[in-house]
Amino acid sequence: MNCAIIDDEPLALDLIGSYVEKTPFLTLAGKYNSAVEALAALEKEPVDLLFCDIQMPELSGLDLAKHLPVQTQVVFITAYSEYAIESYKVNTTGYLTKPVAYADFLQAANKARNIYDTVIKTEKEGSTDDFMYVKADYKTVRIDLDDILFIEGLKDYVKIHRASTDRALLSLSSMHQIESRLPVDRFLRVHRSYIVNMKHVDRFERGHVVMGETNIPISDSNREMVQRFVADHMLTR
């Protein structure tokens, strides 16, 4: 697993770096003194696992975690135990308090490896299964793609509406992140805040996608793309 470390304390950065080097299944991809410095690098080249301090200037580790790809697991390392509950709101894989012993580090790393092997690695290698996993309600939840009606963007979260239940799933992710994991032959971004499973669309009406009793707006910037999709699937004589 590729990993990175972020900490504004040089001694802590070096200590965790030494732990990574002696852990056989981890490869160190980068060390950063601030979350701001790390953000640009991690957007270009995401890692599988991030060991991250919480209290840092300009951008905290908790805020950084909200902008990472959903595939990146985060283990927070901090001197302040009071952040533990808040850290689990961003679906952290682990929470370690300083000073960190190698045994505790290894336990958190092994937990991350188990998640990687059972969930994330399968997706990276192009699973033929028609489903995906998302983190919601402090759990990792499997969703069948055909069950998704539409996905609604809500600032730092996405709300996944499903055909099988009236209860939507709320997951900490961006629309861009979840859109990149969906097949383009079925899912279409019809609006900045909406991705629609075209399989469940009943009709198009006055600039809206209609699904049962739900009307979803089509933005002007996405209208041409929607029209092309419809034209490609239009029955012609």
Strand content: 25-35%
Largest sheet: 5 strands, parallel
- Strand order, largest beta sheet: 2-1-3-4-5
**Helix share bin:** 25-40%
Which stretches are poorly predicted, pLDDT < 50 over at least 5 residues?
none
What structural class do you assign from the helix and strand content?
A: alpha/beta
The tally of helices reads: 7
- N-to-C CA distance: 54 Å
Helix and strand run: EHEHEHEHEHEEEEEHEEEEEH
Based on CA inertia axes, which overall geometry fits? elongated
* Rg of Cα set: 20 Å
Mean pLDDT: 85
Strand runs, count: 15
What features would you highlight for this structure?
alpha/beta; elongated; 30% helix; five-stranded antiparallel beta sheet; 237 residues
Task: Please characterize this protein's 3D structure.
The protein has 237 residues and is of the alpha/beta class. It has helices at 10-21, 35-44, 61-65, 84-87, 102-124, 175-179, 220-232, and strands at 2-6, 27-32, 49-52, 73-78, 94-97, 131-136, 139-144, 148-154, 157-162, 169-172, 187-191, 194-197, 203-205, 208-211, 214-217. The strands form four sheets. The protein has a five-stranded parallel beta sheet. Strands 10-9-8-12-11 form a five-stranded antiparallel beta sheet. Strand 11 (187-191) and strand 12 (194-197) form a beta hairpin. The protein starts with a strand and ends in a 5-residue tail after the last helix. The model has no long low-confidence stretch (mean pLDDT 85).
